[in-house]
Amino acid sequence: MSIIVFGSINIDIAAKTPRLPQPGETIIGNNFFTAGGGKGANQAVAAACLGTFTHIIGRVGNDQFAEQLLTSLQSYGLSKENILIDKSTHSGVAIIAVDDSGQNNIIVIPGANNNVGDADIERLKKVLPEATSLLLQLEIPLEVVQKAAKVARELGVRVILDPAPAVADLPLELYPLIDIITPNEVEAGQLVGFRVHDTETAILAAKQLQERGVKNVIVKLGDRGAVAVTGDESFVVPAFAVEAIDTVAAGDAFNGGLACALDAGRSLSEALVWGSAAGALCTTQVGAQCAMCDRPTFDNFLQHNLERTVETASIQTMSAGRRLKTIT
Q1: 55 lies in some domain
Q2: Residue 112 is assigned to a structural domain of this protein
Q3: Do the domain assignments include residue 138?
Q4: Alpha carbon distance 260, 186 (integer Å)
Q5: How far apart are the first and last CA of the chain?
Q6: Minimal CA–CA distance to 27: which of 36, 38, 16, 37?
């Protein structure tokens, strides 16, 4: 079996700076690098680094970045077979600033990602029958995301959507096609129209998304952990304690780890632990794809945090009557 990632491929142009600039302000940075990025490619690399056979389907442009991007993906064990070189435009570019605390801001210029369309859907159809999960994001045209989700649903393949960059008006027809949606707190708030800032508001947001047709909702709360709401229960996985130096692509690492666990037959609660561990480890390195951990590092990290895989700990009763299980 395999994981398929259908989405964006970017070149990251990143600058390290003591703090993020204010509007209209110029500050002096202290480092600069280019590397492979894009939410689709990041998630594919995260899954591949954890040892799961992974396909990526997307586009790069007709420019000097294309070969760098393809070579980089191949170095992580990903095939370029289903990546189209789009001669009509440039590769996607992400301009990233990262401060000393690990926080970041990002500007994305989609380039070839904006041209992902029906030809790419046809390539997707050829590999979907052997897949356990299809990972989607929103850095390619929304209508193509919806088509991909529909094809996967027809074939019985699990659909995992990372709704980023968030849009407030996702088509209502898309929600019933999603098995698992994984917004962070800001994206969840944009989707439901109110601020999500803690476990209780995350659960309220998740319920609203379920009312729109999503089966399972995971809200990523950063250093406060991740909340999951299924048809039967709600539970939270606390964040792993690490020394974060760069939060770029941590959410992509989370989704890669989540999908790998599900591909291995793990429960959703175990998959949250895997996703949280992968995301935490990503923050301890600078960059996106180059920050994804390999399987020995990942296994060693989990081995030293075994208590987080035990589904015991405190159980609280929420106001709506749904049980909230805390996995520690």
Answers
A1: yes
A2: yes
A3: yes
A4: 25
A5: 30
A6: 16
Residue 240 corresponds to which tokens in the numbers above? 């792993």
Q: How far is CA 213 from the centre of its chain?
A: 20
Q: Let me know: does 242 contact 284? Beta carbons within 8 Å.
A: yes
- CATH number of 174's domain: 3.40.1190.20
* Catalytic residue flag (residue 252): yes
Angle at alpha carbon of residue 11, lines to 139 and 105, rounded to 5°: 65
Query: Which one is catalytic: 252, 263, 294, 299?
Result: 252
Q: Is 249 left (phi over 0), alpha (psi -120 to 50) or beta?
A: left
CA dihedral of 256, 259, 263, 265, whole degrees rounded to 10: 120
| Structural domain for 289, as ranges | 2-21+32-326
Is residue 267 packed enough to be buried (19+ CB in 10 Å), middle (13-18) or exposed (0-12)? exposed
DSSP character string of 268-297: HHHHHHHHHHHHHHHTTSSSSGGGPPPHHH
The pTM score is 0.90
Task: Tell me the three state secondary structure of residue 211.
Answer: helix
Task: Per-residue pLDDT tens, the chain, 328 aa: give them.
Answer: 799 999 999 998 989 999 999 999 999 999 888 889 999 999 999 999 999 999 999 999 999 999 999 999 999 999 999 999 999 999 999 898 989 887 888 888 999 999 999 999 999 999 999 999 999 999 999 999 999 999 999 999 999 999 999 888 899 999 999 999 999 999 999 999 999 999 999 999 999 999 999 999 999 998 889 999 998 888 999 999 898 888 889 999 999 999 999 999 999 999 999 999 999 999 999 888 999 999 999 999 998 886 544 433 332 333 333 445 555 4
In order, the DSSP letters of 163-174 are: --S--TT--TTT
Pairing label, strands 31-37, 10-16:
antiparallel
45 in Cβ contact with 97 (< 8 Å): no
Number of folded domains in the chain? 1
Q: What is the CA radius of gyration of the chain?
A: 19
Q: Is 26 contained in some domain?
A: no
